[in-house]
Design a protein that fits this description.
By secondary structure, the chain is of the alpha/beta class. 32% of the residues lie in helices and 19% in strands. 35% of the residues are buried.
C-alpha cells in the first residue's frame, strides 16, 4: 500500500484476507484485497515491539527522501499510576509529509498505537493529519494528547515551523568528525547530575536561556538537546527569534540518544 509494489507478507491476518477474497471470487463475486501495510507486532520479554509501513532504511531503498522523527510519551496520563514510556519513531516523505511508516517499543499500549498508524498509512495521511484524530481519552488509557497525537504535533512543528531536527546518528557523526558547532544541554542541573552531558556540551537550563544568550554565537550552528525534545524545541524558538539562523534540536532528546545505541557517548556525572 505504500510503494504499490508486490511484498511478501507471511502473516495469518493477510492470509485470511486473501483466502476470503479467493473463495468469494471463485463463486462469482468480485472482491479485491487492496494491499497491506506490513503491520507486525511481537513480544520480547517484558517489551512489545511493533512496526507498520516502511522503516527508514526501506524508505531510502525505495527512493524516498525520508524524515525520521522520535517521541517518547507515556502510554497513559503521567499522573495516573503505572504510566510506561513508549518509544515511537515515525518515517515520512520529507517533501510531502506523507506518513510512510512507524515503529514502536514499549511495555504497554503499543498495539493500540501501531494500529492507528497502520490505518493512517492506509488512508495516505500526512503525519500532521494525526493531530485531527479524535482518540479515546481517560487517564487510565491515554493522556489528553495521545502518543499518536504527539507524533502528529511533532510532524506539524517540522512542516510548519521551520524546525530542523537532528537524529542521534547524525549528531554522533558530527561529534566523531570533529565538526564545528555549539552543543547546548538545556536540562536542569538535577537531570545533569543524574545523567551526564554529551561530549563538549554547554549547560544552560531552558529557564535561563534568554538571560545567558551571550554564551552563544548566533553565527555558529547551534544544536540543543533536553530529555525528550520539548524543551530543546522551545529553546529553538527562543534562539530563532533572537536572530540565530542555524539552530537544530536532537530529535527525541537524551532518551532517544541513550535508547538509540549512542549511550557510549554520554559522560557520567561527577
Amino acid at each position: 500500500l505504500v510503494t504499490g509494489k508486490p511484498v511478501l507478507t507471511p502473516m495469518g491476518s493477510a492470509a485470511n484476507k486473501e483466502g476470503r477474497a479467493a473463495g468469494a471470487n471463485a463463486l462469482g463475486r468480485r472482491i479485491a484485497v487492496k494491499g497491506f501495510t506490513g503491520t507486525i507486532i511481537v513480544k520480547v520479554f517484558d517489551l512489545t515491539v511493533a512496526k507498520t509501513g516502511l522503516s527508514e532504511r526501506e524508505a531510502i531503498a525505495e527512493g524516498y527522501s525520508p524524515l525520521a522523527l522520535y517521541v517518547q510519551p507515556g502510554h497513559h496520563a503521567g499522573y495516573y499510576p503505572g504510566s510506561k514510556p513508549l518509544h515511537i519513531k515515525t518515517v515520512t516523505d520529507r517533501e510531502s509529509g506523507r506518513l510512510l511508516g512507524a515503529q514502536i517499543i514499549g511495555e504497554e499500549g503499543v498495539d493500540k498505537r501501531v494500529d492507528v498508524f497502520a490505518t493512517a498509512i492506509y488512508h495516505q495521511m500526512r503525519l500532521e493529519d494525526l493531530l485531527q484524530l479524535d482518540l479515546a481519552y481517560a487517564p487510565p488509557y491515554s493522556a489528553a494528547r495521545d502518543p499518536v497525537i504527539i507524533a502528529g504535533a511533532v510532524g506539524q512543528n517540522y512542516y510548519q515551523d521551520d524546525w530542523d531536527p537532528i537524529s542521534p546518528h547524525e549528531l554522533k557523526a558530527k561529534l566523531d568528525g570533529g565538526e564545528s558547532f555549539v552543543l547546548v544541554d538545556v536540562r536542569t542541573r538535577l537531570e545533569l547530575q543524574e545523567r551526564g552531558p554529551l561530549p563538549g556540551a554547554i549547560h544552560i537550563p531552558i529557564d535561563l536561556l534568554r538571560r545567558q544568550l551571550q554564551k552563544l554565537d548566533p553565527d555558529k550552528e547551534t544544536i540543543l538537546y533536553c530529555a525528550q525534545g520539548l524543551r530543546s524545541y522551545l529553546g529553538n524558538r527562543i534562539l530563532s527569534m533572537r536572530g540565530f539562523k542555524r539552530v537544530r534540536t536532537l530529535s527525541g532528546g537524551m532518551d532517544n540518544w541513550m535508547h538509540g545505541g549512542e549511550s557510549a557517548g554520554a559522560q557520567s556525572a561527577d
